[in-house]
């Protein structure tokens, strides 16, 4: 290990160059780069990334919306002659995003600032060419560095809220995964300053549950992953963390919108399906959902039957309603 550590910087640079140039070996190189980053130190990771930005001609990427708009106007004015150049730049950006995902675990705050700035510039880019890769890189940072994530919470939320996936499932998945890590962090810290943003995220998930089939499936997967993460908390308070999630979802049952209420029922059906004991452990759960039997909105009444992703969970939930 001492010999490897003494040559880790050279190896890191060599493997990074190979990563950019060879598509066939990238999957294997990622594992090597991730391991080398752990023993190379953040300063060397920072120097490596800066050198790669310069090598790829991306060291002067604008990071503000105003500059990005000016850059877009300049490109539009030059016509098709920049098409190949733009495609090459976007390809380099995508590769660097993959490197960020690989190196993020070993990064300190200064390197994370560098990575986050590069990710932000891509998410603000009007071309949206690397949006899914940028979201995946961001999700890696959110997963591995919860303190940094909460420190940058306002800016991260602004970026995520500005993304419109439309029909791009890869972008939607990346957005929802980022929301997943943020929501888990916020529920675990349980601070009043983050509670409003936690509800904003949960609202996005509930709306996705009422969207088209593929979006609904992604939202179910993310909600299930959130539940699993809270249940397996290392702080020995996983039950209370999960109960907070239930309580937050239950809050939407009083919404005046049948669309939101049916989305909340769909979320509860999944959570109860994965752990039916919460029917009796979560305070006021049964009384809250029994009130729904008096609801006249067709969308609320039929929510169990229209769920095509977890029909068993919805059936089990409907059984609990009749206890």
Automatic annotation (TrEMBL):
Entry protein name: Ribosomal RNA-processing protein 12-like conserved domain-containing protein
Lineage start: Eukaryota, Viridiplantae, Streptophyta, Embryophyta, Tracheophyta
């Amino acid at each position: 290990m001492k010999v490897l550590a003494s040559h880790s910087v050279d190896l890191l640079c060599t493997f990074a160059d190979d990563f950019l140039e060879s598509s066939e070996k990238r999957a294997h190189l990622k594992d090597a780069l991730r391991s080398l980053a752990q023993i190379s130190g953040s300063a060397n990771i920072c120097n490596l990334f800066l050198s790669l930005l310069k090598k790829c001609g991306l060291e002067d990427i604008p990071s503000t919306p105003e500059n990005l708009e000016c850059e877009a106007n300049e490109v539009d004015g030059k016509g098709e002659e920049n098409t190949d150049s733009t495609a090459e730049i976007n390809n380099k950006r995508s590769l660097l995003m993959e490197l960020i995902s690989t190196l993020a675990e070993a990064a300190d705050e200064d390197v994370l600032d560098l990575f986050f700035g590069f990710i932000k510039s891509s998410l603000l880019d009007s071309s949206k060419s690397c949006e899914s890769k940028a979201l995946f890189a961001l999700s890696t940072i959110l997963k591995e560095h919860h303190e940094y994530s909460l420190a940058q919470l306002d800016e991260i939320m602004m970026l995520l809220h500005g993304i419109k996936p439309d029909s791009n499932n890869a972008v939607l998945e990346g957005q929802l995964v980022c929301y997943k890590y943020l929501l888990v962090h916020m529920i675990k810290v349980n601070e009043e300053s983050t509670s409003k943003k936690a509800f904003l995220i949960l609202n996005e998930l509930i709306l996705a549950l009422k969207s088209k089939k593929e979006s609904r499936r992604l939202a179910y997967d993310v909600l299930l992953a959130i539940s699993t993460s809270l249940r397996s908390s290392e702080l020995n308070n996983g039950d209370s963390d999960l109960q907070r999630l239930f309580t937050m979802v239950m809050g939407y049952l009083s919404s005046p919108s049948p669309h939101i209420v049916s989305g909340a029922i769909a979320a509860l059906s999944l959570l109860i399906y994965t752990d039916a004991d919460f029917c009796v452990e979560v305070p006021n759960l049964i009384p809250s959902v029994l009130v729904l039997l008096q609801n006249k909105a067709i969308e609320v009444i039929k929510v169990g039957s229209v769920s095509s992703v977890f029909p068993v969970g919805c059936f089990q939930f409907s059984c609990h309603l009749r206890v």
